[in-house]
What does this fold into?
Amino acid sequence: MRRAIALARAQVGLTGENPAVGCVIVSAGGVVVGEGATARGGRPHAEEIALDLAGVAASGATAYVTLEPCGARSSGAVACADRLAAAGVARVHVACRDPSPYAAGRGLARLAAAGLLGEVGLLADEAAFLYADYRPPGPAAR
It folds into this structure.
């Protein structure tokens, strides 16, 4: 999770209306197979980048994400929680819950329904600064 926090930290202030998020995917053998941070302007999301890098190695892996993966997308694209499940990720640990009224709880519910939800709040005290100033813009957020 600390690596995911560092990835997100580097993007703070560069992600438009979206929060800076970091994601690290670790194989069952303990090898980092993918990592990413929310891109400039807010797209793609950290999980999308990390999953693209991991490819088939994401199957059976553990994902560490600094903010609750999205459970719905305003763009109509596949939500990150669903992408993690479709990739075969075995477990997802999340540092912070999404503060957006539009998104809060949706991603966690999707992960739980898929049997992937791991620890919520992992290193939350270390990641909290990433979202201290984040003000969701409204219903079309993240």
Summary: The beta strands are 22-26, 32-37, 62-67, 91-96, 117-120. The longest strand covers residues 32-37. The chain has one domain: 2-129.
